[in-house]
Amino acid sequence: MTATLPSEVTATQALVQPALREAVGELRPAMRRIVSYHLGWTDEHGEPRSSGGGKALRPALALLAAQAVRAEPEAALPGAVAVELVHNFSLLHDDVMDGDTERRHRPTVWRLFGTPAAILAGDALLTLAVDVVERAGDPAATRCLTGSVHHLIEGQSADVDFEGRLDVGLQECLDMADGKTGALMRCAAQVGALLGRASPVAAQLLADFGGNLGMAFQLVDDLLGIWGSPEVTGKPVLADLRVRKKSVPVVAALDSRTADGARLRELYGRTDPPTEEELHTMAELIERSGALAWTRDRAQRYVAQAQTCLDRLHPPPPIHAALTDLTRFVLERDR
Amino acid sequence: MTATLPSEVTATQALVQPALREAVGELRPAMRRIVSYHLGWTDEHGEPRSSGGGKALRPALALLAAQAVRAEPEAALPGAVAVELVHNFSLLHDDVMDGDTERRHRPTVWRLFGTPAAILAGDALLTLAVDVVERAGDPAATRCLTGSVHHLIEGQSADVDFEGRLDVGLQECLDMADGKTGALMRCAAQVGALLGRASPVAAQLLADFGGNLGMAFQLVDDLLGIWGSPEVTGKPVLADLRVRKKSVPVVAALDSRTADGARLRELYGRTDPPTEEELHTMAELIERSGALAWTRDRAQRYVAQAQTCLDRLHPPPPIHAALTDLTRFVLERDR
Fold this sequence. Notes:
Two copies of one chain form a homodimer.
Chain A: H1 7-24, H2 29-38, H3 57-68, H4 77-98, E1 102-103, E2 106-107, H5 109-113, H6 115-134, H7 139-162, H8 170-195, H9 200-227, H10 230-233, H11 239-242, H12 248-254, H13 259-269, H14 276-288, H15 291-313, H16 317-332
Antiparallel strand pairs in A: 1-2
Helix pairs in contact in A: 1-3, 1-4, 2-6, 3-4, 3-8, 3-16, 4-6, 4-7, 4-8, 6-7, 7-8, 8-9, 9-15, 9-16, 12-15, 13-14, 15-16
């Protein structure tokens, strides 16, 4: 099954894309060239590409959050652009840190233009994100953004730290996921609410909606990192197990006190690259330990919690429907 | 001759250091540990060190700029802390990009804690800098800071780009130096002036003072990178020539249309590591081409321009004297 983005989400692109291009246009030429490649707007020679870009879920969430509190989507545009810039800052730096050579079926920036270019382009996007949100003139929005960046850094730092450890607990793994993904989705919804002049209660409900949606998103990402279809995700089969990543389903299995979990621990403790047979064994062990079902169930619970926030908020019906569709997309997506 | 920092500059440390520690204390533990090591406050095990830290010229400049327009130094404190955080963000990332293994006679962060830790700690400091300046409640100060970061990134990007080129022109090399060092020194003085509620004319004079001082600082740095005493600078003898860096004196020599410049170009065009004999030849060629004298003269001219800004500003006499001493220190320093 291929889940498609709700039309209200794709409709926000018509507002977000020009604003994003305008912001990136402020960068000096050297950085603009790298960023345009990273965003899928140009190829490695700087020639325009017809398609490109990611799902742009975060800016859509910001615009829908403003509409949920009955503001015009335009009010949230600086926040929407800023969160998308922060998201891409983190992708540029994460690809360097993780040594990932491909993203969205194309060579990563560090791979093509070198590590310094990727670090500097990330730095430039983080700074530009602050510029854009600061101009909206709402200090709470700026603080929401920088607070989420600190969270993001904390999450990525934990992720790196986990690499050298076999004793990662499930709670700290969920905290890491909250930092890596929950924080910026929470910020996207909250910044949209703030710029839409939401009441404190409504802003908090939207922040919680975004945070829960983000956690569900990350858990589904972790499942796709093991069981996703390579031709769809653009990642190798069993990608996360290949690098012995401590993603949520893996840690849930390691932490399961089952014989399958113990056997997985033994395979994860080895240092030589896993064979194809070992990879499939790992995936089976995770499934048999109950961790696959647990992760899927947990993702559904996060979505249910997001739904509860939404129901308490009483947004206009079309926006309620769009945000509900968004939670469904996050659960059912295959890429 | 060892130039010492003017007492008014070192006196600002009493204000800056506690504020800097308070800001860094806001970071989460993992980042705080890395940053405390980088700033020289702790050793690699997290144990406190008695000495530490750099010259902290930039925060001193911010506080003196506020005093130059007859404000209390405390008014500029958020700006002072923010520029010092930005400076250290750039050092952390530059050390990764340049592959430098030592800073201030200690292993660099990436060398000790890994590249991801250095990238993330830099990201955290940049974000923290924005937090600190934003709280001062003056949008112009925040914009001054982020504007200087974009300049800084541009300068570092040019520096990286120059590595693969032999045709670097003198003007673009000076522009690069202005980005790498001029911009943040300009911002330090300007942000101090802005937070000290300077008139637009006074703020501009102080910005120009800082920018000129920064250029002089960078040119002296470039001279020390070739002729500095290793036991004082903590860098290997003829350090910049070893890596065939396109610093200002080098580019001035390459660009000199002299036989010495042509011979240097030939040595710089080689790809194998230079021998000790070649290193000394390079240094001699730069001197004989007139580029050493030119660079020294140019540094003096920047300082003279800074002095002109100061004279037009008419700050209180003790502040005039302190800022004058600062320009002298920048010219005469040996580290």
